[in-house]
Write a structure and sequence with these properties.
heterodimer; A: about 110 residues; alpha+beta; 5-stranded antiparallel sheet; 5 strands; about 20% helix; disordered C terminus; B: about 550 residues; 6-stranded mixed sheet
């Protein structure tokens, strides 16, 4: 059985988000609402459009996912990168030497 | 370097105000995404894979220490503490929030910077030789002309909606360090028989899905005719460039379809209506701009001071760095320092905020406050006293910027690829990292010699793979990452588009394939023969034979 979810980018900050059963948007792909029919896919895309009109997200679209014991995983490699982040971000401690933590100070909210 | 006058400052200030209003209207819904997107792109703000990416213009690759500090500060406060220097001498920030972009543009404007026309179908940042003004082989400093082009092209009333993006590069030296032959317009400085300085004008070069080497449209153009002639080319392109097909909209397609003779005829006819008119700048204005590029107050020094020789003798690593990264300056006693942003295993072209601050400090203390960005994603300190080289190197070692690999196999160009870019089909950064780790031994790199690897994550070729001695293009095969190798590319005076070697390699085997290519080169090269020269001699046959031996 194949499943689909809706993904988009948040207008405010461009972050990748996923449509949930509560009609909210989460950065966690595992919280996305999954459907398994074409009709249901059309329905959740239509529901997601409300968030376009309220200026919350841009360009929602359906993607294929697999569901297993670990939860929801996008099928397409590109979508897996979107869900997890860059595989080799500069300064990631998995790459080369660890950088000075002060380089990653974030602006206070 | 150039300092804004009141008009320049007003342009960027007003642009920041305008964009703030546009963002506000986007959030209120007064502007739809379709309406907002072209406005956002005109300010270099892309919606990429994970977040908004802002591309900040670094005009012809020249930065002051004050500006570099501001970029460091921006990366800390608005991003994740780093920035990425690009193949067009700009800097990109990968994690920008749209809600903060107006503040960010204000911050840039405060140091005479902006993101205007770093995207969109406009004239983009004009790029130049990173050794402009200091190279021993220079005819004249090209920065005067790149600054004039910058002012002419910024918010040009006719050229805001071209058929497609437009890129201009200028070189003032015999050696082409700006890849002018693969730009929409390339200007090569020349002297005519009377010794007057002018340009050979090339048109229709470019990379991407249909790479082409630029063709000469005018053998010699006097400098006072530069703007009127550029205007004539842009008018012909604007009028005739294809708007029906995004993939055939660059000027290289126009030149290819019509032929250079016809394009020349059209441009010359258009130029007749322009030359000698308002685009011939008054002498006073040219001199006003030229004055900004006067040489800094050099001291009277001798080459090869004793302290330099002594430190090279005592410290082998320093000596290697001087040999590989330091270049002769036209002023005695000074050197040009190349700062490699290609530390083994790291992301090519990236710099942390701390690293940027250290480079800014060094340029203040040792380099007349000036830094250059080159199209190979490295930085340059263009004026360093030779007696200060050891202190500069020591500081660079502390921040991981002293890799002695300029122009060597470790000095890889790579686009951000599928880790960041919404257009990409595969990742490029991990391939660059793995290759640099495979060839980490600097003695091995020196033995291999001049070897430029360029990696693109998609056909758009932002990593310039077409003009790599070894070019690598990522392709998607049934959802898996594969990598196609090209050989024989060059971006210099003998510019050439690389030829595809054969079947693409998997992610698992691409680095082995590159290593095999190097081994073949080392086995077959004549004494002193570079990879490029050897490839010219042998062609692809010996490489194909071994790499595809089992098929």
């Amino acid at each position: 059985m194949s499943y689909q979810i809706v993904t988009a980018n948040r207008l405010l900050d461009g972050r990748v988000v996923y449509f949930t059963a509560a009609h909210t948007w989460s950065e966690d792909v595992k919280k996305s609402v999954c459907v398994d029919t074409e009709g249901a896919g059309a329905e959740i895309i239509a529901q997601a459009q409300g968030s376009v009109e309220s200026q919350d997200i841009v360009d929602p679209y359906l993607i294929d996912v697999e569901i297993d014991d670990s939860g929801v995983t996008p099928v397409a490699f590109r979508e897996r990168i979107r869900s997890k982040g860059p595989t080799n971000e500069f300064g990631s401690p998995t790459i080369g030497e660890a950088l000075n933590p002060s380089t990653h100070q974030k602006r206070a909210a | 370097m150039y300092q804004y006058d009141a008009i320049d400052q007003r342009v960027v200030d007003q642009r920041a105000v305008q964009f703030r209003d546009q963002v506000s209207r986007r959030f209120s819904g007064a502007l739809s995404e379709d309406e907002f997107k072209p406005l956002r792109l005109m300010n270099g703000l892309y919606l990429q894979l994970h977040a908004y990416m802002l591309r900040v213009a670094v005009p012809y690759g020249v930065l002051s220490s004050r500006q570099l500090r501001k970029l460091a500060d921006i990366s800390r406060r608005y991003d994740r503490g780093y920035g990425h220097f690009t193949t067009r001498q700009n800097i990109q920030f990968n994690w920008i929030k749209l809600s903060e972009a107006p503040d960010l543009l204000d911050e840039l404007a405060s140091v005479e910077m902006h993101a205007i026309q770093t995207s969109g179908n406009t004239i983009r940042n004009t790029t130049a030789d990173e050794y402009a003004g200091v190279a021993a082989d220079e005819i004249e400093d090209p920065r005067l002309y790149t600054e004039i082009i910058r002012q002419w092209s910024t918010l040009h009333p006719e050229f805001g909606f071209l058929p497609r993006k437009f890129k201009i590069a200028v070189t003032g030296a015999a050696e082409d360090r700006a890849a002018v032959r693969v730009h929409d317009i390339g200007l090569l400085m020349r002297k005519d028989d009377a010794g007057e300085i002018g340009f050979e004008v090339l048109v229709g070069g470019g990379l991407g899905r249909t790479p082409m080497i630029g063709k000469s449209i005018r053998r010699f153009l006097a400098t006072q005719d530069m703007l009127s002639y550029l205007e004539a080319i842009l008018r012909v392109y604007n009028r005739l460039g294809r708007r029906d097909n995004k993939y055939k909209a660059r000027i290289k397609i126009l030149v290819h379809e019509h032929g250079i003779e016809e394009i020349r005829r059209l441009v010359e006819a258009e130029w007749e209506t322009l030359k000698g008119g308002a685009l011939d700048l008054p002498e006073a204005e040219v001199e006003r701009i030229r004055a900004h590029f006067a040489p800094p107050p050099y001291e009277n020094l001798e080459n090869d001071p004793a302290v330099l020789g002594a430190m090279k003798f005592e410290n082998k690593a320093f000596a290697t760095w001087v040999r590989n990264n330091v270049v002769a300056h036209k002023q005695a006693g000074y050197s040009i320092v190349n700062i490699s942003l290609k530390k083994t295993g790291e992301v090519p072209g990236d710099a942390t905020a701390d690293q940027m601050d250290v480079v800014a400090d060094l340029s203040e203390k040792y380099g007349f406050n000036e830094i250059r960005v080159n199209h190979r994603q490295n930085l340059v300190l263009p004026h360093v006293r030779q007696k200060d080289l050891f202190d500069v190197w020591t500081a660079l070692v502390d921040v991981g910027f002293a890799e002695p690999n300029i122009g060597l196999i470790g000095d890889i160009i790579a686009c951000p690829g599928l880790d960041f870019c919404a257009l990409a089909t595969t990742r490029s950064i991990p391939v660059a990292q793995r290759i640099s780790e495979r060839f980490a031994d600097i003695a091995r790199q020196n033995d291999i010699g001049d070897l430029q690897i360029k990696i693109s994550g998609c056909i758009n070729a932002c990593g310039h793979h077409h003009v790599g001695h070894i070019g690598i293009l990522g392709v998607d095969r049934r959802g898996e990452e594969f990598y196609q190798i090209t050989l024989g590319g060059r971006a210099d005076a003998d510019a050439a588009i690389g030829k595809i070697l054969g079947r693409a390699f998997s992610s698992e085997t691409i680095v082995d394939a590159v290593e095999m290519i190097i081994e073949i080169y080392l086995e077959l090269r004549n004494p002193g023969e570079t990879f490029s020269d050897m490839y010219c001699r042998t062609g692809p046959a010996p490489f194909k034979e071994k790499l595809y031996a089992d098929h």
